[in-house]
Write the C-alpha cells for this entry.
Amino acid sequence: MSLGSWLRDRPHLLEKIYQVVEKGAWRLNPLIRRLGYQRVERLIKPFEDAGKKLVFDCRTCGQCILHSTGMTCPMSCPKNLRNGPCGGTRENGHCEVKPEMRCVWVEAYERSCQMPIYGEELTWIQPPVNLLLYDRSAWITMLTEEDQVLPSCWQATEELTLLEDIQSIWPQQEEK
Amino acid sequence: MELNHIPEIDYISGSRLERVLRAGRFAVTAELNPPDSADPQEVYDAALVLSRVCDAINATDGSGANCHMSSVAICSLLTRAGYEPVMQVSCRDRNRIAIQGDVLGGAAMGVKNLLCLTGDDTTAGDQPEAKRVFDLDAIQLLRTVKIMRDESCYLSGRKITSPPRLLLGAASNPFIPPYDWRAYRLAKKIEAGANFIQTQYCYDVPRFRQFMSQVRDLGLDQKVCLLVGVGPLRSDKAAEFMRTKVPGVVIPDQIVDRLRKTPAEKKAEEGKKICVEIIQQVREIQGVAGVHVMAYRQEELVAEIIEEAGLLPRPRQSAAPEEDPLRQARKRRRGSS
C-alpha cells in the first residue's frame, strides 16, 4: 500500500494536518508577505504539487477546497463538479465516465462523514471555478485571498439556511 | 378559474406549469424528442400529440451527448405556436458566457421554464472524442440564472435591462449512490434556486419512497415541487440496454424479469402497464407534485400512458392575452416612444 492511499483512507488525520498547516500559514503570512508572495510561491510550488499529486491526484486548480469536499479533489471528477455528484454514478458507486474509477463524490461523502472538523462543509455551495488561478499555488492564493475573489454578482452562501439539523449526519465537532 | 384572483406579480414566471403547481393540481410534463432534421414540422408533429396531455413540454439539450436540434431552437418553435416549453440547459457543451446568452435568448422567445442540468458526459454519446466543457455545474448554473432573474445582472455584475422571468428547475436522481446524500444534494439545489425538480426515470418505487421520506423529514417537499420521471419500457432487451448504456438509469431485476416472462407480442403493452402502475404508486406518495413522462421517439405512447393513468383532462391554459413576445416588444416600444 502506498503512502498516498494510506493517507487517503484517514480523512480525519488529513483534516487535522490541514487545520494545523492552515493556522501555521496564516501565522507566517506577515513574513511571507515581506519575502514576496511570488518568490515564496516559486519556492513551495514544486513541493505542494508533488505532495498533493501523491495524495489527492491534484489538478492544480489553484483554489483548493479539499477540506470542504471530504479531502477528495473535486477536479479529479471528469466533469470537474465542485458541488456534488452528477446523475450518472453507477449502481456500484463507480464513475459514469471512467467505469474503473470510484465516483469522486461517493468517496467525498464517505470521507466527510468521518471528518468532525470540516465534514459538514460538503453541503456548502461552491462558486464557479476561477480559471485565472489555474496552476497557481493554492496556499499562496489563500493567503493573498485571491481565491476569495468571486464573480461580482455571485451570492456567496455557505451553510444551507434551509437545513437546521445538518449536524445530524456529520459527526459532532470536538471542542477545541 | 380562481387563479385569476392571484395578482400576476406573485408569480415567479406566470408559466402554465407554475399555475398548475401553485393550484396544487397534479402536474404532468413530457419530453419532446428533438429531431435530427432542419424541418420544423417534425417538432410540431411531436408537440401536437404532447400538448394535449401535458402542462409543459421539455426540450432536451443534446441528451445522452448525442447531437440533435438545439433546445433554444425547439423552444422558439414551440413558443411561436403557443406551446409551453421547459428549456433544458446542460453544462456539457457551453461555458458561462454562452449559457447566460442562451438564457436571455430563450426568455425573449417566450420561454418561462428552465431546467438546469449538469449533462451526460461526452463519452455517453456518438461523438465521444469531443471536448467537454463543464465550466459551471448544475448548482452554479441554477444560482447564475437566479441572479440574472432576481438581481437583473450577469454573473459579472453587468446590468440586464429586462431580466428573464423563469421558473427554475433542476434534476435529481435518488436511485444511485451516494444514496444518503441525494436528499442533501436536493437541498443544495433548492438553496441554489430550484423551484421545481424533475427526477431521473423511476422504476424502483421502494427506493423512491425511502428518498421521499428523507425529503419530507428535511422539510424539502414544502420548498420545491417534485415531479417524478417515468417512462415505458418496450421490452426486456430495451430495459437491459437502458440500464447498462444510459447513465444513471436503474431498473430493478424484477421489472426486467416481468418483461422477459411476457410473450414477445405483448411486451410493449406490459411495459406500458408497468409505467401506468408506477405513476399510480408514486402519486400516492406524500410530497410528489407531478410526473415527467419520457419515452424515446414514442410521443403517441406517452399520450396513451397519461390517459390510462387517469391524468386527463389537463387544466386548460388560463387566458394569457400577451403570449406573443414579439407583439409585447412592439407594444413596449410604442409605449416608450
Chain A has five helices and no strands.
